[in-house]
Write a structure and sequence with these properties.
Elements (H helix, E strand, L loop, with lengths): L3 E7 L3 H14 L3 E7 L6 H9 L5 E5 L6 H14 L4 E4 L11 H9 L4 E5 L6 E3 L3 H18 L11 E4 H7 L8 H14 L4 E5 L1 E3 L10 H19 L11
Parallel strand pairs: 1-2, 1-4, 2-3, 5-8, 6-9
Antiparallel strand pairs: 4-7, 5-7
Length: 246
């Protein structure tokens, strides 16, 4: 397995960040973790700094204030590519994603996948703790993406994934201006248009027990609008429009 960097964006995740980091770093000594913290008032960044003294594979980038998930992923994934990691990936800080599933995603990349997605919506995947309306929104959103663009991925909004570093370079992650779910969607669609091998690995997603979801109405509206635009381009045989990230 190549050296892998897992990017974990944080904002007020003090309650779960320590167990998450300890579990991920214990999986394999070739795995490193980069936390991108948006100035968490609850001291998440300070806690990670303390933990960083215990393991050189842990690093952190401190940012001033909330700058968005998309910008955190752009920064973190590019950081990993620039530093020579063979695989770069992402997961949530709230333990919704099981650290014990990390080796399965990395194994899929090692076996030839360019992108391995921890999927809730393929056989064997499931969600624990979501109310019916939240599940319907997520399933409906993914169905809308497939219908609008033709991309066959079942869980294009998943935030648990591992990329071959070469694919991130080919996509040019710094050109992705989308935020929230739209970032995940745009990365999947660009990978698909490039002919990347995408594998969905079934995982169990467990609703967070601490803190609050960062999902807001604006994130959903952005995803719906951008997907419509991307679908229009795909149906006309074009590459989806590029944006300039700030």
């Amino acid at each position: 397995m190549d050296r892998a960097l897992v990017v974990v964006p944080t904002f007020n995740e003090r309650a779960t960040i320590e167990p998450l980091l300890r579990q991920v770093l214990a999986v394999d000594d070739r795995i490193s973790v980069l936390v991108v913290d948006d100035g968490s008032p609850d001291g998440t960044g300070a806690l990670v700094e303390r933990l960083r003294g215990e393991d050189e594979r842990l690093s952190i980038i401190h940012r001033s204030g909330k700058q968005g998930l998309g910008s955190a992923y752009r920064l973190g994934l590019h950081h990993g590519v620039e530093r020579g990691f063979g695989v770069v990936g992402e997961m949530d800080a709230d333990l919704s994603h099981d650290p014990m599933d990390v080796p399965r995603l990395l194994g899929a990349v090692a076996a030839g996948a360019d992108l391995a997605i921890g999927s809730r919506y393929v056989s064997g995947g499931r969600i624990v703790g979501w109310p019916p309306h939240r599940l319907a929104l997520s399933r409906g959103g993914n169905a809308y993406v497939r219908a609008a663009t033709g991309c066959p991925v079942r869980d294009a909004t998943a935030g648990f994934r591992m990329y071959a570093a070469d694919l991130v370079s080919d996509i040019d992650v710094r050109s992705i201006a989308s935020e929230g779910y739209s970032f995940q969607l745009e990365m999947v669609l660009r990978a698909w248009q490039l002919g990347a091998r995408i594998e969905e690995v079934p995982v169990t997603f467990t609703e967070r027990r601490h803190g609050s979801s960062k999902l807001g109405r604006g994130v959903v509206v952005e995803a719906v609008a951008r997907t419509a635009r991307w679908g229009w381009a795909v149906r006309r045989g074009r590459q989806i429009p590029r944006h300039v990230a700030s």
